[in-house]
Amino acid sequence: MTGPAREATAHLFTQYARVWFPSHSALYAEWAHGVAADADLVARIATLPPNKQQPNLVFAVARFLGCPDAGFATLAAFLRERWDDVAAELAVRMTQTNEPARCATLLPVFEQIQSDSGKPLALIELGPSAGLCLLPDRFAYRYDGGDVLGAENLAAGAPLLECATTGNPPLPTRLPEIASRTGVDLNPLDGADPETARWLKCLVWPGQTERLDRLSAGLDVLTSLPRDDPGGPVTLVRGDLLAHVETLVNAVPAEHTAVVYHSAVTSYLPPGLRHAFLELVATLDCRWIANEGFFMSDATDGEIAVPRERSGMFVMTLDGVPQAYTHQHGVQLHWEADGAWPEDGQSI
């Protein structure tokens, strides 16, 4: 393994330790700092394909295989002792965090789209994991500590998704009317399978008990969705998003509005595939929501400069136009569509 490859791996873990993990999981920040400084572990991880080196994926696999949520010394010993098992499990696993709380940041944009068209929404999510974010009408929401939207869902056991906002977001006063729920994923997950549910829970970062509770409640909603639900069942298609998204959009009837959306998905695509997707989605008869750590626009090469105080946030766009900064786990929405986007700062 070359020196530059090891340096790139160490840099990746350092970046996660400094940008993505702090304030979200103290243990993961400790683990990432520890790995970055451990030449032996860096060398092992650097032998993996780039898409298997993601710190959150490596850590989730270790926990799935039995590593306790303890200090870095515990993780280091586990990885050295069980490295062959970890590498084998990484080969068949993907980062497929299913965070239902992202629906709280998507909901205002769904409201905009439905108000514009006056039609029910045909949801097409790219990288849906088990499909929890295909259920925005089945959850309950509270923005800035106000009234609960979807109280009937809350009474039925759905999670309450709390979201703090700034700016002037078009907060919804109704749940979206959903016509259909379809997702495309290289590895769609069955949320009703106990081992799959355990894997999804291992993807929740240590210490995030509220996220774990939301996930558990969201899985209950998914598995109890009535067969005759007005929005239809969650349908997950196995395959590459580029191979399926055009067909799915074209299949949406005229009386519905096709909405293609994704969160924390395209940053995992190689640049060539990302650009191919951008070119394709711009030609489709759909509305397009991107909620990503990269600015998704056909006018850029995949990144946007963001102010330092927004480091660690996603940028949400509608049809390629920036709307808001969003917290990666859906608990904050900083609306910027009506203001000027800063040009200085650092890129994410």
**Individual helix count:** 12
CATH class of the largest domain: Alpha Beta
Q: List low-confidence stretches.
A: 298-309, 343-348
Q: In whole angstroms, how far apart are the ends?
A: 27 Å
Strand content: 15-25%
What Rg, in angstroms, do the CA atoms define?
20 Å
N-to-C SSE series?
HHHHHHHEEEHEEHHEHEHEEEEEE
- Strand neighbour order, sheet with most strands: 3-2-4-12-11-10-8-7-1-5-6
Q: Briefly note the structural class of the backbone.
A: alpha/beta
Question: Which geometry do the CA atoms define?
Answer: globular
State the helicity in percent bands.
25-40%
Q: Describe the sheet with the most strands.
A: 11 strands, mixed
Q: What is the fold-level CATH name, i.e. the topology of the largest domain?
A: Rossmann fold
Number of domains: 2
CATH architecture of the largest domain: 3-Layer(aba) Sandwich
Tally the beta strands.
Answer: 13
Mean pLDDT reading:
90
